[in-house]
Amino acid sequence: MQEFVDRQLYKRYVSVIAHCDREGKVMPLVIEWENQKKYRIDRILEIRPAASQVGGGGILYRVRIGSQERRLFYENYRWFIESYTP
Amino acid sequence: MKERWILHADIDHCYAQIHEMLYPDLRKVPMAVGGHEEMRHGIILAKNDLAKQYGIKTAESLREAYEKLPSLLIIHPLYPLYITYTEKVKDIYREYTDRVESFGLDEAWADLTPSLTLFGASATDLAKHIQNRVYKEMGLTVSLGLSFNKVFAKLGSDQRKPHGFYRMTKQDYPETVWPLPVEDLLFVGRATKEKLRYYGITTIGQLARRERSYLKKLFGKNGETLWFFANGMDVTEVASGPRREVIKSVGNGITTPADINTFDEAREVFLVLCESVATRLRENGLAGQVVSVMLRGSDLAYIGRQRKLSRPTDLATEILEMVMILTRENWRQESPLRSIGVTISSLKPALSYRQSDLFTDERAREKEVRLEQVIDRIRSKYGYDAIKRLGLLECPHLTNFNPLAEHVIHPESWY
Q: How deeply is B307 buried, as exposed, middle or buried, from its count of CB atoms within 10 A (0-12, 13-18, 19+)?
């Protein structure tokens, strides 16, 4: 489970714009950060149920934003990200 | 018969671990899940590893725990959370077999026998795979027992903790099960353990090698059951899906926020409990004939008494009448009451007609029946607090609870 152990991570709940298709499949498109900044998700690398090292868990979306990879979780109707900033 | 492979999985110190999983920092401090001291539900329900090192024990009072470790962090239980996460864990088990039987929130049996060919794996591999998945997907560790019957499987999940695995087969159980202490066996509680020790039985093997008839003589039917268990002769199947058992009794009890000092106060609390019992009887279309009361004083002395009614009933007032007779006969008011309970058993289907009775005013009774039915209807439509008996306003600090809604969470009975 410990896939990113080099740096301290924080649990940050975030707003997400997502696409929900007719089958009920949910795809996150944009992550909205606190300062109104929006980050477009360029690619979803993997979707699977997983626990998070920052606590909790749910459906893990491994996403690529620009050149960065992030772990975004859909946890009981809320989204959170394993963030490098508190 | 083909050898069965039954898995018993137990989420390690369940409630505490769920909190740790959600907030990993809780792993760094001694922490326990416990009731509300001010509501006097003050016992430890689960504790984490650090708390265990300080000698904190499950089921001891918060006061005892604080004495051992004043800085102990107590988290109040959040049952909806536990239900959500334990159900998700069980959903993982359900991906491997349709036979998953819950035993309380945190424990379950799963019959892997038919799944082995489907998944093309050995039972051990499949069990460890499931354990691994729960850890990766839920962040929770479970301990497993794998054996050819449910009793041994349950025993096995207690042997290695946390994240443990213990396997017992038909060939090796004299080596793997018999040396274990007898209290590890299902249904051997403290009292049975002491009694067995008195007769020189301390391990499961010693129990298994005694004569069956000898145990029957000592403990009755239960002694015989224990002998079967110790010899691995438990053949009960893992129930598929949720278990719908035949209801044998309906009961409610409460530890009140303040002590009960008088018969009038006891009567009020019992009225709330009897109303709940009666409503549950009616929901299930049942009527009961044997009324039992449970009285526990503030000195923790326990009195349990029961008596048969002349006819089955599903009316709160009739149950209450018998409850108060029993209470008046048995509570000598030497010490105030701390918790009380009422149970009705010897249940039969409620009939729409009934034999009239020379000594009962049937017209008044008919009125009472309609009254209680109306209360049920009002409550189901507008909520529990929408209607209450006026008398209950006398001591609201004792009667301000809803036994119908508060969750009853405990392992089901075996039989």
A: middle
What are the residue boundaries of the structural domains of chain A, listed by start? 10-83
pLDDT digits (tens, 9 = 90+) for B262-307: 999 999 999 999 998 998 888 888 899 999 999 988 887 888 899 9
Cis peptide before B403 (omega within 30 of 0): no
CA nearest to A49 within chain B: B137
For chain B, residues classed under CATH 3.30.1490.100 are 249-399
State whether residue B23 sits within 8 Å of chain A by CB.
yes
Tell me which chain B residue has its CA closest to the CA of residue A1: B136
CATH code of the region B1-93+107-148+159-167:
3.40.1170.60
Predicted complex ipTM: 0.84
Q: Does B139 touch chain A (CB under 8 A)?
A: yes
Q: Is the Cβ–Cβ distance between B130 and B9 less than 8 Å?
A: yes
The CATH class, in words, for B249-399 is alpha beta
Nearest to B139 among A48, A51, A76 (CB): A51
**Cβ(B145)–Cβ(B156) under 8 Å?**
yes
Q: Which of A48, A50, A55 sits opposite B21 (nearest CB)?
A: A55
